Amino acid sequence: MSTYEMDLQKRIFADNLRKYLERAEKTQTDLQKFMGVSSSTVSDWMHGAKMPRMDKVQSICNWLGIQKSDLLEEKNDTEGYYVNPETAKVAQEILDNKELSMLFDVSRDISPEDLKVVYQMVLALKRKEQGD
Asked: Which residues of the chain have pLDDT under 70?
């Protein structure tokens, strides 16, 4: 891989890492603590100066609930899994709720209203199960 290609890969990784940290409402400090690395290491990743090893990339992906390709590939942000941006927002809320994230998988063209109904139903079932 040429120097240009390596620099491009680091830039893509840095851009994607910033984007997915923001989406997950996590900070560089959160990442530093999770990974057990120094703040300068995270700063190097965030600014495209360095790339973590692939095992660390996988750990970051697991922590953020994303695929390796989400961090390593340049993607067109206008094309998401969900057609409707409001549906994507509700789906992200479900994904961020660790008790609910693995309970179901929804179709990409579901309406935000229907997704909210499913979300409320699952929450109600969880409360009932917990005796609330």
From this structure: 76-84, 98-110, 132
Residue labelled with tokens 């969880």: 126
Question: CA angle, 33 as apex, 54 and 101 as ends, to 5°?
Answer: 75
Look at residue 78 in the predicted model and tell me its pLDDT: 47
Question: Which domains can be identified in the chain, with CATH numbers?
Answer: 3-72 (1.10.260.40), 85-129 (no CATH)
CB 56 within 8 A of CB 35: yes
Give the H or E element holding residue 82. none
CA-to-CA distance for 38 and 33, rounded, in angstroms? 8
| Element of type H or E holding 55 | helix 54-64
Other beta carbons less than 10 A from residue 90's beta carbon: 21
The HSE-up count of residue 63 (CA atoms within 13 Å, CB side) is: 19
**Are residues 59 and 35 in contact, defined by beta-carbon separation less than 8 angstroms?**
yes
- HSE-up (13 A, CA, CB side) for residue 68: 9
pTM given for the model = 0.58
Percentage of the residues of the chain whose pLDDT score is greater than 70 = 83
The 8-class DSSP code of residue 1 comes to -
